[in-house]
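Hi everyone, sorry if this is the wrong subforum. Our group has a chain we'd like a structural model of before ordering constructs, and none of us has done structure prediction before. Sequence below.
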Amino acid sequence: RRVAAELQEESDKLTQKGDRDRLEKDELRQELDAKEDQYLRSIEQERRTREDVEAVLTDVTTELDRYRVDYKSIEELQKENATLVDKIRRQEAYLKRKLEREKVSRASMK
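Answer:
Right subforum, don't worry. Here is the predicted structure as tokens:
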């Protein structure tokens, strides 16, 4: 009887240990699942944030390229303006010479 009681006691201890181990395993599984869910949410949030930043970067790059084109246009307009100003000065000088010639021509006709 004593051996049977010891065996029963040992069996009960092992059953309790098995129950504790299963509970601990279940708790660890729940903790692992919770951490995995948290990490997956974090990764998803980081992915969305990265996509948003990439979209903003694309918009900024496009706008910067447009400004660069506009800046070239401004440079070209400034060159064209300088050419036109020079042309106007030459035309003014030509018209002054022409008026002087006409004045001289009229004066000599009188």
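For your construct planning: The chain has one helix and no strands. Helices lie at 2-109.
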